[in-house]
């Protein structure tokens, strides 16, 4: 009887280790298709953290959006169209404060290895704003130099630029508070594809 229970337990353990348990966003998944999210404070341009997302192989890198305007409560989801998967999601609250819901967490800034020397600033034409609504707020003049300076000393940024030097660097401004929104609560997200 003990042997039967032991064998049943082993069978359950094997079933639980099926391919379904591997998330396409698990950094341990062997894939060359990765997207890097780096969070930079809107007002101070200080790097606050980030996450590397891993996806199923796909040709191309198009970011699409699903935006629900905040009458009181709204949200924004950015999708990697070719992989049919989420890159970012977060709530937007009118006269309140929404929260990022995907990814669930970011690694702190101190989790990223730094370089001894800063990387050169890409051309402004290499940056692309992630458009999601005609009324979405973006400053009239974006200080690309200060945003880049927040991440120009990160080893992972060097690796992404070397693996895909012709790729645009996407900029998304997450404004979880709107109406009488507080810019101190807003963040730039730099999105890079390897």
Q: How would the blueprint of this fold be written?
A:
Elements: H1 2-16, E1 34-41, E2 47-54, E3 63-68, E4 73-80, E5 85-94, E6 100-102, E7 107-108, E8 127-129, H2 144-149, H3 155-163, E9 169-174, E10 177-178, E11 187-193
Parallel strand pairs: 5-10, 8-9
Antiparallel strand pairs: 1-2, 1-11, 2-7, 3-4, 4-5, 5-6, 9-11
How is this structure best described in words?
It is globular, with a radius of gyration of 20 Å. The N and C termini lie far apart (54 Å). It has a 6-stranded mixed β-sheet with strand order 7-2-1-11-9-8, covered by helices on one side. Strands 3, 4, 5, 6 and 10 form a 5-stranded mixed β-sheet that branches. Helices cover 15% and strands 32% of the residues. Strand 5 (85-94) and strand 6 (100-102) form a beta hairpin. It has 194 residues and is of the alpha+beta class.
């Amino acid at each position: 009887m003990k042997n039967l229970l032991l064998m049943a337990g082993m069978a359950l353990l094997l079933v639980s280790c099926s391919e379904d348990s591997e998330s396409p966003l698990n950094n341990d998944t062997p894939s060359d298709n990765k997207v890097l999210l780096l969070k930079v404070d809107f007002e101070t341009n200080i790097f606050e953290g980030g996450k590397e997302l891993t996806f199923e192989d796909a040709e191309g890198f198009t970011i699409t959006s699903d935006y629900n305007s905040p009458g009181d409560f709204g949200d924004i989801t950015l999708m990697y169209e070719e992989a049919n998967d989420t890159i970012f999601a977060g709530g937007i609250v009118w006269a309140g404060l929404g929260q990022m819901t995907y990814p669930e967490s970011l690694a702190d800034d101190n989790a990223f290895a730094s370089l001894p020397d800063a990387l050169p600033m890409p051309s402004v034409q290499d940056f692309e704003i992630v458009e999601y609504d005609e009324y979405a707020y973006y400053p009239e003049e974006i200080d690309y130099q200060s945003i880049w300076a927040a991440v120009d000393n990160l080893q992972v940024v060097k690796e992404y630029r070397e693996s895909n030097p012709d790729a645009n660097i996407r900029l998304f401004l997450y404004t979880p508070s709107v109406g009488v929104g507080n810019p101190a609560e807003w963040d730039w997200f730099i999105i890079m594809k390897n």
